[in-house]
Amino acid sequence: MTAGQRFRKELKQNSPLQILGVINAYSAIQAQNVGAKAIYLSGAGVANASYGLPDLGMTMLEDVCIDIRRITGRCDVPLLVDADTGWGGAFNIARTVREMTKAGAAGCHIEDQVAIKRCGHRPNKELVSKEEMCDRIKAAVDAKSDPDFVIMARTDAHASLGQAQALDRAKAYVKAGADMIFAEAIHTLEEYQEFTRQIDVPVLANITEFGATPMFTVDELADVGISMVLYPLSGFRAMNKAALQVFEAILNKGTQNDVLDIMQTRAELYEMLDYHSYEEKLDKLFIKTKECKDGKC
Question: How confident is the model at residue 244, as a pLDDT?
Answer without folding.
Answer: 97
